[in-house]
Each structure stands twice: as C-alpha cells, then as structure tokens.
Amino acid sequence: MYNIISYQLADFVDIKSVKASIDSKLLYSDSSELFYETGSYRYLYIFRYGVVSFLNYEKDEISSFFKFIHPYCRNFFSETFSDELMLEPAAAENKIGHNKIEVTNADPDVLRMIMLNVSQSVTLDYYSSQTEKLLEETNYHTQLLEKKGKLAISGRKLKKFIGKTLLLKNRIAENLYIFDSPPETWENEQLDKLHNELKKNFDLQDRFRDVSEGLGIVKDNLELFKDILQYRNTIMLEWIVIILIAIEVINFFIEKLLGVTK
Fold first, then answer.
1. Beta strand pairing status for 73-74 and 25-29?
2. Is the Cβ–Cβ distance between 131 and 123 less than 8 Å?
3. Distance between CA atoms of 244 and 21, rounded to whole angstroms?
4. What average pLDDT does this structure show over 124-128?
5. What secondary structure does DSSP assign to 16-65, as a single string?
6. Angle at 108 between CA 3 and CA 92, to 5 degrees
C-alpha cells in the first residue's frame, strides 16, 4: 500500500528552472508539468500552477523538497492545501473508493494519471477558497449598498478587485483539465476510463462548476458596481460643470454691476 499526496504550495512554479535542478529520471515534461521517477516505486509530479504531488514519500522527505522548491515559487503559501489517496498497486481488479484506489496495472502512465487527478482536486480546493473570499468581499459591498444606498469602494480598488477576479478565472481556465481529457487518454481506452472514474470520485466537474458559478456571481456584481461608480462620477462631473457655469454667471453680473457703478 502506497500513499499519494498533493500540495498546493504557491501560485506559480518556475518549471524550466526546476527541471535544470533535478537529476532524477524524467518520464514526462512540457512547459507546465514535470513527472519524475525518483526511486523504486517513488514518483514526483510538479505543476506550473503551484502543485507538487508525491508518491511513496516520507514526511521529512516532503519537507526537504518544500525547502528545495521554495526559491522557484511565486507567492509560496505559509499554509498549504493538500489532498491524498491510498494506492494498492497489485489488486485483482480496478476499484476506486473515496480514500483508496486499487489498480491491476500500476505502470507510470497509470500512476501519473492518478497523481494528476489528486493534484487537480487540491488545486480546486485552493481555487474554491479564493472564490469564497471574493464572494465574501462582494457580499459585504452588496449589503452596504442595500443598507445605505451607496458603495463604499473607490474606483481604483474596484479595478483591482476586477483584475483579481479575471486573473483567477484565467488561471482556472489555463490549469484545470476538468472537461477535456489529457492527450495521453485519447488512444488508450483503459487510461481514459480510469481518468473519467477518478474525476467522478473527486467530484471534479461539480466542484469546478461551483467555482465557475461563484466567479460568475462576483463578476456580475462587479459589473454592477462599476456602472454605479460610473453613474456617480457622471453626476459629479455634471455638478462641477453646473457650479462652474454658475460662477461664470455670477462673475458676469458682478462685472456688470461694477461697470454701472463706475
């Protein structure tokens, strides 16, 4: 029995630099992923979006690797998200449970697919957490709007809020393979079946929809906030124009009066 555990360590990992620094046997690599065989039935999977997955590693070895990879990460988290799965590699039949998976054929392609899905699960936890924070902040401003009839947010802060939301949406679209199967499954029916069963086991599609819907709610609210601020700014400009015209009119009459008295 072996343990697979994945951690969301950071927002980003410099894959190119990490690749140049690890001497283990590299089984698969592209611009966003590195998959290594690091020993007898020991594997390491690194993702550009800040996730690292370990198969058959001890806790102290994982801690040591965290220290190694820290310089190659952007926004390394003080508290990591994690998800894990127990693996039985020589089972009589393939069987996927909530916390355990049994497989008859545990070749590197199968192990990589399992580790990929565990990693997708943990990064969904992270994105869900980020979405909940955005929803909480949005709800705060919505409640103020309901109670006081005005927004307590500046245009600059709103722009940063919109940027944060769009950045999260882009990261999700770029890094999650929830609906599209990896290319390796296209010509391997067994691997494709395993991938689909793992997605169901981790509820990846439902969790992905929850995140997408949450971000959609945030986006709709931010669009409304933006329209309100634009309307407020328009009204303010109109009042400035009216005041300037009034000043000009007053000055005109003062000049006329002064001219008459002379």
1. unpaired
2. no
3. 66
4. 90
5. HHHHHH--SEEEEE-SSEEEEEEETTEEEEEETTSEEEEES--HHHHHHH
6. 65
Tokens representing residue 148 in the block: 């006081």
Using the structure block, give the residue that is written with the tokens 């079946």. Answer: 193
Domains for the chain: give ranges and CATH numbers: 2-119 (3.30.310), 121-261 (no CATH)
> How do residues 221-242 score in pLDDT, each as one tens digit?
878 777 776 656 666 666 777 7
Residue 251, helix vs strand vs coil: helix
111 contacts 39 by C-beta, under 8 angstroms = no
Q: Burial of 126 by CB count in 10 Å (0-12 exposed, 13-18 middle, 19+ buried)?
A: buried
Residues 204, 178 contacting (CB under 8 angstroms):
yes
pLDDT tens column, 93-109: 888 887 899 888 888 99
pTM to 2 decimals? 0.78
**Encoded amino acid at 119, one letter:** S
Tokens 């916390």 belong to: 99
**Can you name the residues that pair with 33 across neighbouring β-strands?**
47
Backbone angles phi, psi at 44, to 5 degrees: -135, 130
What is the rounded (10 degree) CA torsion for 115, 117, 118, 121? 160
Question: Kind and range of the H or E element at 5?
Answer: strand 2-8
Which H helix or E strand runs over 228? helix 204-261
CA dist., res. 111 & res. 107, Å (int): 6
* DSSP symbol at 182: P
Rg (CA), the chain: 28
Q: Which tokens is 73 given?
A: 């990460």
Structure tokens at 25: 């046997």
